[in-house]
Amino acid sequence: MPQQLNIKAIFDTLTLDRDKLSGIDPYSDDEDEDKYGKSELKSFLFYKINAADPFKKSYVKIQHSKVDRNAYETIIRENFIEKNMVYCDKLDAIDMNDDRTSLILKCYKYFRERLLQMKIEDIIALHNSMYNDGKKMIVLITMDLDDDNEQSIFDTINRAGVHLSVSDIIKNDLFKKYMDLCQGNEEEEKRVIQIYEEKWEKLFYIYPDGQRHIWDDVRVFGNQQRTNLDFLLYCVAFVRWGKKEDIFSDLAKVYKEETKKMNKEELLLLIEQIHSYAIIFRDKIVNLQDKYKQEDDAMTFSYNVYVNRLLLILEVCGVQMFYPYVLKILSEKDKLGEAKVKKEFHILESFIIRRRLSSKGVSDYATKCDYLIKCGSDEIQRELKEKDSQIGNGNLRGYLQSIKPENAKLLLFIIELYKRRDEKYDISSLAYRYTLEHIMPKSWQKHWLSVPLRKSDGTEYIADDGTKIDLTTDDGQKIRKQHIESLGNMTLLSQNLNASVKNNTYEKKIEGEGDKKPGYRKYTSLLITKKLVDNYDQGKTEWNESEIDKRTSELCGLISKIWPDKF
Question: What span, in angstroms and rounded, lies between the C-alpha atoms of 554 and 418?
């Protein structure tokens, strides 16, 4: 409960309920108008526009910006400005059991009733301690000098009772500005409260029983954390005002500055944009993050459902800086048309995949996103086509020869979806829960030593001095290790093979060792794995570096089709 309400309850108890209190009143014979610090309390609770104005024209210093505003101001004004009291000397008028009764009124009544159980000298001591600089201990909030005003702090603590989040500060400042522009018009103020309840409170703060508070879930950005709601507000700000220097580190300040001169219509448009983006963010981004890893009832993906395909790539790759652009495009889908949205997302998808394989890093992604929002996809299309960009087709195969497992799994999964895009396949939608399998195992020494090294044309590896390179040499072992780590040596399975099969010969890996230790033949639900078994049945019974090279080239061709460098 805010300090202002506490102090007011103490003062009202001392002045209105003095006869009900036990103990000794040290001021009982004091006729001074300023008894119980009345003048200091006036300056603490109220302010005047002009110093010479009479006190009755004073305004409450800190206002409540929500539904309890009238109740709060009534309590503060009564027994000071308003002598005809509704609540302060009629506590029975406050029904604690009525859900319609303001929580501010209930808090006030509760505090008054607790005070009545105390001795008058103890109440006075408590009252005086609130003005004692050496004993102030109610709440400590550490903020920079120019961060935010006391109104925002009051509203934020009133809602959450905990810390000041970025989103709370933005919300409070936004709706206070909106309320101030109503200039005391009660109908307009009611409309602002209604907008708050419909566009903000219902979406961000009210959850069905048992549903977790998704907007409070934390997202990680390097060594920083933001809630989903904070990040949503970042996305909206990024779309509206671009890549500002402090947009991520001091988002509340950006909103405060950018909304400073907005009128009511402009504020409403901003609130509606936040609301519409939030629904997309919740239904598309958060929903995918929640469901794609579930064991039961996992989300499935189809190649032709391109929005979810892009969102899966962003999620698996841990790329979040393009979400402002994604939200903007999805919010304008009806205006842009399906074909335009599909193309723009495909371009972004190609860029992210190729940059991911190149290991060029993501430090410029916020700048790229800013350009996408302002100017479209021309710049990243140019980068895709440029030879020196290191992400063109000429570089692609080299990246596939040594690929990280998480990247390999993602590529193979979407290649599988691509193969199933035709209507002839009964199952075109799959969950992202397959395990990555190395066909030639990492532990190859026991069962694969007899498989000779072969180049892609089937010939032997020969050193510069004309000697044969085989697995007894360091160079030969390096060649094998490089091929084991290439995409052509990887596939997906619905579950891990038994260890005795996993590291066994190619024949054993295909056939398994009985029903309890199955091989690939039992896991042919995926087309990319079924093809290995089909090739084996057609006589290709040896798996070596030559076969790995051929399959890497084949997969590289598919990748360049799925994620082209030219549009």
Answer: 14
Q: Is the CA virtual torsion 214, 217, 219, 225 positive or negative? A: positive
Residue 71 confidence (pLDDT): 84
Spatial contact of 461 and 453, defined as CB atoms under 8 Å apart: yes
Q: Give the per-residue pLDDT at 337.
A: 98
Distance CA(449)–CA(551), nearest Å, equals: 21
Helix 228-241, helix 166-180: angle, nearest 10: 60
Angstrom distance (rounded) from CA 43 to CA 335: 55
The DSSP code sequence of 207-275 is --TT---GGG-EEEETTEEEEHHHHHHHHHHHHHH---TTTTT-HHHHHHHHTTT--HHHHHHHHHHHH
368 Cβ partners below 8 Å, 6+ apart? 321, 322, 351, 379, 380
CA dist 50 and 77 (Å) reads: 19
Q: List the chain residues with pLDDT less than 50.
A: 1, 136-141, 143, 145, 151, 156-162
| pLDDT at residue 34, rounded to an integer | 67
Query: In which residue are the tokens 């060792």 written?
Result: 513
Q: What is the 3-state secondary structure (H, E, C) of 517-532?
A: CECHHHCCCCHHHHHH
φ, ψ dihedrals at 40, nearest 5°: -65, -40
Q: Can you give the pLDDT at residue 49?
A: 76
Residue 490 · residue 436 · CB < 8 Å: yes
Closest CA to 257 of 237, 239, 274, 277: 237
The type of residue at 229 is L
| Amino acid letter, 48 | K
Q: How many angstroms separate the CA atoms of 417 and 419, rounded?
A: 5
One-letter amino acid of 206: I
CA-based angle 139:142:143, to the nearest 5? 130
Q: Are 59 and 74 in contact (CB under 8 A)?
A: no
**Helix axes 545-562 and 405-419, enclosed angle (nearest 10):** 70
Q: Which amino acid is at 375?
A: C
Q: What is the full DSSP assignment across 501-512?
A: HHTS-HHHHHHB
* Cα distance between residue 428 and residue 122, in whole Å: 75
Rounded to 5°, angle at Cα 208 from 202 and 213: 75
Kindly state the tokens that stand for 478.
């390096």
Q: What is 338-389 written as a DSSP string?
A: HHHHHHHHHHHHHHHHHHHHHT--STTHHHHHHHHHHH-SHHHHHHHH-GGG
Q: What is the structure's pLDDT at 146? A: 52
Spatial CB neighbours of 375, under 8 Å, sequence gap ≥ 6 = none
User: CA separation (Å) from 438 to 223, 332, 491, 503, 509?
Assistant: 33, 43, 7, 9, 10
In Å, the largest CA–CA distance within the chain is 116
The 3-state DSSP class for residue 119 equals strand
Task: Give the residue carrying structure tokens 């239904």.
Answer: 283
What's the CA gap between 350 and 368, in Å, rounded? Answer: 14
Bridge partners for 59 per DSSP: 47
Distance CA 300, CA 288 (A): 10
How far is 414 from 563, CA to CA, in rounded Å?
A: 11
468 DSSP assignment: B
Contact (CB, 8 A) for 166 and 251: yes
Query: C-alpha 97: how far from its chain's center?
Result: 38
| Contact by Cβ (8 Å): 20, 113 | no
Tell me if 543 sits within 8 A of 520, measured CB to CB.
no
